[in-house]
Amino acid sequence: MSMIGESRPGLMVSRYIATRPGDAERGPLVRGHPSEAHKRLLVDGELGWVYGPRRHELAVLVVDDSVSPGQIVARDIAGVAPAETVRVVKHDFDAGRSTRNLG
C-alpha cells in the first residue's frame, strides 16, 4: 500500500441522515472524529471529497468528538449507505481543473 493510502484509510459510515425539503439543515455533510480529520489535514467546516463505492461528492466536514474513530456520520451524500466504507480526502483548490486533486 502506498504512503498516501496509509495516511487516508477508509472510514465506515456508522449513520446516514437523509433530509427533506424544508428541513433547517440540509446538504452534503460528514461528521468525523478529530483524529480522523487530523490524519487527512482537514479542519472543521472545510470541504472535502467523499469517495463512496458508487460515486464521489464534495461535503462539508464537521469535527465531532461523539463520532468514534474510524467511522463517520454522513448527511445527504448520494451513493453511500450505512456500513459501507468511504474515503474522505482534502480538496486541493490550488490544483485548478486537473484531475490530480481527486485523491
In short:
By secondary structure, this protein is mostly beta strands. The protein has 2 helices and 6 strands, in the order H-E-E-H-E-E-E-E. A hairpin with a 4-residue loop joins strand 3 and strand 4.
Helix-strand blueprint:
Elements: H1 3-7, E1 11-17, E2 29-32, H2 34-39, E3 47-51, E4 56-63, E5 71-75, E6 85-90
Structural account:
The protein starts with a helix and ends in a 13-residue tail after the last strand. The chain is mostly beta strands and 103 residues long. The chain has helices at 3-7, 34-39, and strands at residues 11-17, 29-32, 47-51, 56-63, 71-75, 85-90. A 6-stranded mixed barrel has the order 1-5-2-4-3-6. The protein is globular. 21% of the residues are buried.
Supply the helix-strand structural class. Answer: mainly beta
Uncertain ranges: 1-5
Strand arrangement across the biggest beta sheet: 1-5-2-4-3-6
What fraction of residues sit in β-strands?
Answer: 25-35%
What's the total helix number? 2
Order of helices and strands: HEEHEEEE
Q: Write down the Rg.
A: 13 Å
Overall mean pLDDT: 88
State the separation between the terminal residues, measured CA to CA: 15 Å
Give the fraction of residues assigned to helices. Answer: 10-25%
Global outline: globular
- Sheet bearing the most strands, described? 6 strands, mixed, barrel
Query: Got a strand count?
Result: 6
